[in-house]
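dude i think i finally got it to work??
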Amino acid sequence: MKYVFVINGRRDKEHIVTSIEQQIRWHKHRSPQVVADFVVHVTKDADDARRFVRSMGCEHPDEELCFVSCGGDGTISQVVSGVMDAGLTSAVHHVAVMGFGSGNDFIRYYSARAWRNVMAVFEGAPQPIDVIRITCDEYPGQAFYCANVAHVGFDAEVAHIGNSLTVEGTKHPYVKAIWRALIKEGLRSKARVTVDGTVVNPSQRLTLCSFANNGYVGGGFYCAPRAKNNDGFIDVCLVRPVSLFTFLTLVGLYRDGKHLDSPRCQPLITYTRAHHIEVDAPRPKRLCLDGEVLTGTHFEIDILPGALSLWLQPEM
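look at this
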């Protein structure tokens, strides 16, 4: 199998290239029979990973390839999208993850593994997982793919601001983004969420709503503690409009994944599972998927069961 290391080429990620290339050279010298064939690609811009993976997959449709995402959740999303764009079969095309991001929410779903060790990737094994597919009225004819969590409302604004702070090199970008989003956007959004044909917020208002394949978002907030990424469902967690005081008193429970079982939170939350979701807003609204932000007034969200082969490192 050929391993294709797709590395986030942003300037603040230069250390990733050095680390991975050094590890590959060392392992190739020590165990040439293990490191048989590999490619290293450093991305040039935000969409380069998706284009590169799609192109390489289309050029090698029958060759067994493992695309190794080396970066954060945004890089994972781009690599997964490239695989899905190319229509590659999960029997011979896989995606592995080396976690070098600021949030690393995707890998929090799993038990402890050597997420930054190249040899652990070579020792991995395939595991089928679901993928979320999203379309938006502002991007006709295009589809976007999410392996982790998509969301609208307050936390999408946090992600939008947090992305900018991350690029600037700010420490704890998502924590600081929360306070900026509170000041700039507040806690009340207007949007209708329809889950498998049923409107779950008749008031058409919300504080936030997550659509989860895995469980974590925003650098460690456990928004969907019951989510499983191989059950063929999207877990939907909608928080109704709340005051700033209520938000500040309950956000800790939401962060720790205790909100679903808390009597204080239950009256404020709708939690369900779905195959198909539609989000409609009276004016353009942001939807965030694995760090990528889309803007539109109509979104359709679907689950693709078992669509991706995740090449997963062994537990430590």
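The two ends are 23 Å apart (CA to CA).
im so relieved honestly
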